[in-house]
Amino acid sequence: MWYKNVEATRHLPGILNSLIFIVLPVSMLAASRAVTGSSAQGPKSTATFAGLRPEDGPLAIVELCLTWRDAADDDFVFKTTTQFLETVLHAARKKGLEHRYKFPNYAWPSEDVMQSYGEERLAALRTVAAKWDPDGFFQTRVVGGFKISK
């Protein structure tokens, strides 16, 4: 699938396609969960800040890094890369390997990052936002980022 995607963009001036895998082993998910709470702060959390549990793992984050020279090629690259991602997700779904989590730093613009945290974690984030940002300043007046209000 990756090589097919690379071939589809090879003709573009200055194109550089990179595919990176970042593995989240079960041990890392367990350790991340353990530091999210302590006896002084109450019971330890069963999940990481992103709602990941050790039983979700191992997981692999797929990072696509593409650069190209001509802004006129933007639409083509976005379309081609979106099709590649849809193909990968379809294959993962068919094998029962798809996971809801989307790593925010490498998320594609069309991916729903906040929803990927899971309903329980998203509800907790909304509770914090209601307490500390009751007017929704950071949800409505700050450009960019992923918004929990969507």
Topology pattern, helix = H, strand = E: HEHEHHH
Structural class, from secondary structure content?
alpha+beta
Shape: globular
Rg over CA atoms, rounded to whole Å, is: 18 Å
Number of domains: 1
Helix content: 25-40%
Q: Tally the beta strands.
A: 2
Largest β sheet strand count, sense and barrel closure: 2 strands, antiparallel
Main β-sheet, spatial strand arrangement: 1-2
**Separate helix tally:** 5
Strand content: 5-15%
Show unreliable segments.
none
Average pLDDT score: 86
Separation of termini?
32 Å
Which key features would you list for this structure?
single chain, 150 residues, alpha+beta, two-stranded antiparallel ribbon, 37% helix, globular
Explained architecture:
- This protein is of the alpha+beta class and 150 residues long.
- It has one domain.
- Helix content is 37%, strand content 12%.
- It has helices at 2-9, 26-34, 74-94, 119-132, 137-140, and strands at 16-24, 59-67.
- Helix 1 packs antiparallel against helix 3.
- 9% of the residues are buried.
Sequence-ordered SSE layout with sheet pairings:
Layout: H1 2-9, E1 16-24, H2 26-34, E2 59-67, H3 74-94, H4 119-132, H5 137-140
Antiparallel strand pairs: 1-2
